[in-house]
Each structure stands twice: as structure tokens, then as C-alpha cells.
Amino acid sequence: MTNASISNIETSKPVTSEAKGTINPEEAAHFGALAAEWWDPNGSSAMLHKLNPVRLTYIRDAIDLHFGSDMASLKPLAGKRALDVGCGAGLVCEPLARMGARVTGLDAAPENIAVAKAHAEPRRLDIDYRNIGIENFDGTGFDLVTSLEVIEHVDDRKSFVAGLAHALADDGLMIISTPNRTAMSKLMLVDLAEMTGQIPKGTHHHDQFFTPDELEKLLDEAGLQVIDTIGLSYGPAKGFALSDNLSLNYLMTVVKA
Global pTM? Predict the structure, then answer.
């Protein structure tokens, strides 16, 4: 299915409707309105398309390290279950499925779920997409749980993290990422990004960003332990890259304590 076909999907009808709890209705509506362009690398989600390969490289390295998989294997998640929370239209779910995982994707916006299903179907990717908040999701025992650039958009952060922890298997792996709350992130991810049209206006709210210490404390309170933290930097020439500099955005590898 082409991007043009996806843009014609009727996205005003919810797939299911359990949008309460951790879900911020205004945030869900904002991202739902962008759903039709989610898979367009030149559309409103262009920044995510630039960011995604770097995130996936980090996730793949964490998978190999945690599960002892062969770095040359195309299916390091074969026989494993993966959950992506705040999955959007499936930018992370689809690569995880190609790595062999049985994937479940949750998102607050029914429009995103509709587009995600439409994109996955012709590619024969059997992904279980659900329009539901993590606090209303009863799944447990996932080998891998991911939530990338999502926690800064939720209402009840403690319940959100508790939900992530509940879904994770005792010996599972979690990857979470979010922008840092710094002057640099405000300049790059809010002011300049919106001014130049790289990110739609209203996507980011600087006061909702987390410092790494704040997020680690929240994870610790949920019985989780951060075992690695790395920054995501950006340069006009090279784009996004993994970095020791945490001032813009960062990824964390997390396990149960």
C-alpha cells in the first residue's frame, strides 16, 4: 500500500476506544491528526524517519547484548514477544517484527492504529495493534518493551511507567527514550524545529521533558534499573547520532531490579 493509499484511510472512526488514564487527549488528537503522513519520510514525521535508524541501531545492540544473540542474525528476536508503547503508525513495530518478534503495538490515537494496520497488512507483518493505554493493557511477560519519545506526552507518568514494568518479563529488556529538559533541547526541538517546519507546531512542550535523573528516579520507583544511558545528538551534516552528550535527547536500557 502506498502513502497515497494510506492518506485516504478513514481515520475519524476509532478502532477501539479506551483513551483514558495516562493518555492526554490533546496529545492523542495532535498525533492522530498527523497519522496519514506518518510513513512519508518527507512529511510531518520526517524528523522521526531521520531519528529511527539511530534508535534501531541502539535497540539491536541492546538485544544482542542482553539475549546473547548472534550479531549477524536477521532474526535475533525469533520466539520472543515485543511490546511498543506509543507505537504511532508502526515505525518501530515493523522492524521488530522483521527481527522475528511477535509484536504488539499500543497507541492512544485510533487514527495511528488504523494507519499502522493498513501499512503492515500488505507487507504480511502480523502485528497486534491496539488503541489502548498501557494502564488498561493486561499483557505481561514481554521479552522486549520499547517506548520511544512517548513518556513526555502522557498525563500520569507514574502509572505509565508502572504499566511498562508490569508488561516486562522478569528477565526482559526495556528501551525508553525521551528529550532532556535543557536549554539546548528547547532551542533545537521546540523553537528551531517548529520555526523551520521540521516538527509540527505543538508537538513538544519543553516543560514536559525529563532530565535523565528524573526519569531514572521514576523507573527506580517502579522496580526498574537503568543499566545504560546514551545521548542522541544532531548535526546538520551527519544528522542524528549516538553520543555521550545527553543535552538533546537520550536512550536508556532498563531491566527489572
Answer: 0.86
